[in-house]
Amino acid sequence: MGSVGLLYVGAVLFINGLMLVGLIPGKSAAILNFFVGTMQVVFPTLIILQANNDPAVIFGAAGLYLFGFTYLYVGILQVTGFPGEGLGWFSLFVAICAVIIGVIQFTSVNDPVFGSIWLIWAALWFMFFLVLGLHKESLTLATGWFTILVSFLTGTIPAFLLLLNRYETGGGSALIMALAGAICLAVAFFLASRGFPHSTTADDTATASTA
Length: 211
Fold this sequence. Notes:
Layout: H1 3-20, H2 26-49, H3 55-80, H4 85-109, H5 112-133, H6 140-163, H7 171-193, H8 201-205
């Protein structure tokens, strides 16, 4: 995933996390979802058209569609008010694909840090599935906080490291990333257990929102 695209993945995850915890309304979050979703569909399409059938380039671009379609789906739901079950089950599909891509990052691409990042994304999208697809509204706050924390861990920070040409990968760094993801999940559930923030809109957004 390109560093610029990754930066805006962090941005939209941050906004959608705030939406899930009820700090901003869904229609406000829809705008950035449309912007980033469009970017994450147009850019990989251009990359694939110019890839000359290079499997490695096509593979690198293909995963971007999972994010692009998610964000466009979110934007449409927030604007129309349609129910979110379809997005929830699509999120399960994304989670499964993210696990596969994560394994490939470890085994074939030789980028274990992004292998860990993809597995963290798999966990996040699985939580979207639980909230939207299975109506586990009790997980909405935890999912929102996990989204916010993951936006920086897997989006903003790696993007800046890539932009500054300081990104390094390896087994030790991958383990640190995985542990950081687990800590983010634990912190998210802790904040949710405290009911923070206390907002009546958090439960409302659970029916039609995700990252």
